[in-house]
Design goal:
With about 260 residues, this protein is mostly beta strands. It is built from 3 helices and 18 strands. The radius of gyration is 19 Å and the shape is globular.
Length: about 260
């Protein structure tokens, strides 16, 4: 199966020219960075193999109102295709993503990296990612979709054949599907107080070209990042949030804390 993918012209560089951020992942490294160039705090959760796919899961501390970008670093000698979903929506088409090999993808050249700053609305423009409340998120405002809220998900595919450039003219703008009326209203209630989402921010120039790419059937790696506000990570016990020494008999907590690593539902 051949699918169309896009290369970000202004954001694909050789690894040797990359800034010295800390990073994590496997043969493909991922960073979520702020506009100040700082990487957001990330915490390991799980890492395992399923079939032929290496899966990495992490938590990330989101900062309300801050723009963010996703940096993909390819440490391999072959180019790769990456299907990326934020809050369950493909960041190129806006369609519901299942991280499959027939979705629109970005590519990263061998030993290169790319910086992805937002939701793509045409071949020259993206609208910035920023951390916000669920009600203000792009997934809810446009699609009433809370099915994968607060997750940045990346599936990395090898290609079967060498690439062939199709053309460099503009790619067709994907039409966003109409949001279902009244859907997810019940789901929103449980997200109202403490969940984080990603908004549809200011537009930014980001030209692309269209190329041909035939991915393998299954990704060889998936990286999943669950982003939460600081107070939610504290509540879940992912972060240790006491800032000063406590007296074990005098200083009492109102409720029993969650154990470290507890999967909050």
């Amino acid at each position: 199966m051949r699918c169309v993918i896009v290369i970000v012209l202004t954001a694909v560089f050789m690894l040797s020219s990359a800034p010295a951020f800390s990073h994590w992942g496997g043969r493909v490294r991922i960073e979520v960075i702020s506009d100040r160039g700082n990487e957001f705090l990330t915490l390991p959760f799980k890492e395992f193999q399923t079939g032929g796919t290496h899966v990495i899961k992490r938590y990330l501390e989101a900062k309300k109102g801050e723009n963010y970008s996703i940096v993909i670093r390819n440490n391999m000698s072959e180019r790769i295709g990456v299907a990326i979903a934020v809050d369950g929506r493909n960041i190129i088409t806006g369609k519901k993503s299942y991280l499959k090999n027939n979705e629109m993808m970005y590519i990263v050249e061998p030993y290169g990296y790319t910086k992805l700053e937002g939701w793509r609305t045409d071949d020259n423009t993206v609208h910035r990612f920023y951390f916000t409340d669920v009600q203000d998120s792009y997934a809810v405002r446009t699609f009433s979709d809370t099915s994968a809220m607060g997750v940045i998900a990346i599936a990395v595919f090898r290609e079967k054949d060498r690439p062939k450039i199709l053309h460099e003219e503009q790619i067709q703008k994907e039409k966003a599907p109409t949001a279902p009326q009244g859907s997810a209203k019940g789901e929103l209630k449980r997200y109202e107080n403490d969940a984080a989402g990603t908004g549809f921010g200011n537009e930014t120039y980001s030209p692309v070209i269209k190329v041909e790419f035939e991915p393998e059937v299954f990704p060889f790696e998936k990286i999943l990042v669950k982003y939460e506000w600081h107070e939610v990570l504290c509540k879940k016990g992912i972060l240790k949030c006491w800032t000063e020494e406590r007296n074990r008999l005098w200083d009492e907590s109102e409720y029993a804390p969650y154990p470290p690593g507890y999967i909050y539902r």
